[in-house]
Amino acid sequence: MSTASGSSAIETKTPSWVDLMAQSAATQAGKALNHEMHLRSQGRGSASRENTLRKFDKYAEPAVTLYRDHAAWCPYCQKTMLLVEEKQIPVRIELINMRSYGDKSREYLQKVPGGLLPAIEVRGQVITESQVIMELLDQWFPQSQGYRSMMPSSGENKAKYQRLAALERDLFGHWCSVVFRPERGIAGFLGGGSEGMSAAMNGFMDCIKEVDRYLLSTKGPWFLDEQTDYPTMIDFIYVSHVERMLASLAYWKGVDLRDVKKWNLRGLAAWLEAFEKREPYLAFKSDYYTHVMDIPPQYGPGYEGGFSKDRSRFQQSILGTDGKSWHLPLSHDDPLQPLYKGPPLPLCVLQAHGIEPDNVGTYESVDPQLMATACRSMAAWKLANNGAKVAQFAARGGPQGSKNPRKTFSAPLADPYAAPDEKIQPLVDAALRVICAALMDTNSNENNQVNGLPNSSYAALLRETVGDSRDGRLGVVSSLEYLRDRVGVPRDLPLAAARYLRAYLNWGIDALS
């Protein structure tokens, strides 16, 4: 089919982005998310990677401007944002590229000559270094003015805070040694056999067990006993890098630190689950795929080692090449990255679907079909509201896409100046509209399974829309693959919704292949 006849089919057979936006806006998730966007524009609403204004319940304009990274890759920006959200500090937020995936603006480099992130600006003064920023914010917005205190007050807890801060630096050093340096020999490990445990791995495990002992010694899930109902400064200091340790050790070493039966890190598991029950943490939490793509440009390449069978299995799950984690029908939960220890989607979406937590704050007992509907609806809403731009972006993966001379960046999947394949772009746009329609239609899946394959009529419509030209189909497939591999968490969606977008893109790829 020629491009012209393909365009005719597009106009008569597939819904427009305007139609899809309207349909999405009428869904339970769409209504909730559109209202949430309105609240966020006023500085209210829930935490989000996209927020540029946070007022909470304050009415005065914020005196502090916070500069953080655009894609939510930076661990230091993440811990700073968690403090802002938990203390509910009013701030303006400017989103800035990291060097690994884009250029910083001239205006930002004039303010911060080294381009460091995060940074804050107060009355013309610019301050960098996350730890300094976090401590200053805690001082400037004190408990006496109604803000939560994030630093310990007792002498005993102050001393414990210092010991824990030093231990975090030790843990970071052991992580760098085990992941970013080639392994140098295997040492035995009690109860685990000799396979996989290098000297560096043993050092890391000894250190994280010490962290675990501190967590087990407190009354609640957090590091300090002064506050048992919310995390404090030392928890934020740890969590952003521990999150990256979980992903990198699973991917490069075959070690799942959340496997309590194998590693017995009970305090760490409870601490992570406590964080996952908090909506601000969901807003800035990445998935393992995003981390294994964003870690090397920031820290250097990871080296394979450890437990080879588990490593291979985990890598396939993380990369979506196991035929399960990124393919329909999706399992309800992810065996490596548990989705329902806390809210898997923004609370507004869950509540719109009548989804409530159990008596311990998890969502593990929610009906899988209801949860799948909510996840799909959020993914469809995001695609429908950005459809034309997403199609242009995806068309960079077409046969003539990304051919223009341009500056490149160290992150392998980041290519902000790549040009789309303009010839294939109309077909990519049409294919994405069919995929979006299938994603949104939660009432017509085969065998009435919301997590299953779309009705066969959608596959037929997709093939008819793209046409019979081999070059056209190959161009659309390569574009969909390009897009699939660049769905980022949390930049684009939380994992529970992102996995459906990835799976529906794979469904489209399979239907055209």
Keywords:
single chain; 513 residues; mainly alpha
Can you walk me through this structure?
With 513 residues, the chain is mostly helical. It is 51% helix and 4% strand. The protein has 21 helices and five strands. It has helices at residues 3-13, 17-25, 28-41, 75-87, 106-111, 130-140, 155-179, 199-216, 233-253, 260-263, 266-276, 279-284, 288-299, 308-319, 347-352, 368-384, 387-394, 425-440, 456-466, 470-484, 495-512; strands at residues 53-54, 64-69, 91-96, 119-122, 125-128. A five-stranded mixed sheet has the order 1-3-2-4-5, with helices on one face. α4 links the parallel β2 (64-69) and β3 (91-96). The longest helix has 25 residues, at 155-179. The protein is globular and about 75 Å long.
**What is the tally of helical segments?**
21
Mean pLDDT: 94
Low-confidence region ranges: 1-12, 187-194
Give the C-alpha Rg: 24 Å
Largest sheet: 5 strands, mixed
Helix-strand string? HHHEEHEHEEHHHHHHHHHHHHHHHH
What is the strand tally? 5
Structural class: mainly alpha
Q: What is the share of helical residues?
A: 40-55%
Helix and strand topology:
Layout: H1 3-13, H2 17-25, H3 28-41, E1 53-54, E2 64-69, H4 75-87, E3 91-96, H5 106-111, E4 119-122, E5 125-128, H6 130-140, H7 155-179, H8 199-216, H9 233-253, H10 260-263, H11 266-276, H12 279-284, H13 288-299, H14 308-319, H15 347-352, H16 368-384, H17 387-394, H18 425-440, H19 456-466, H20 470-484, H21 495-512
Parallel strand pairs: 2-3
Antiparallel strand pairs: 1-3, 2-4, 4-5
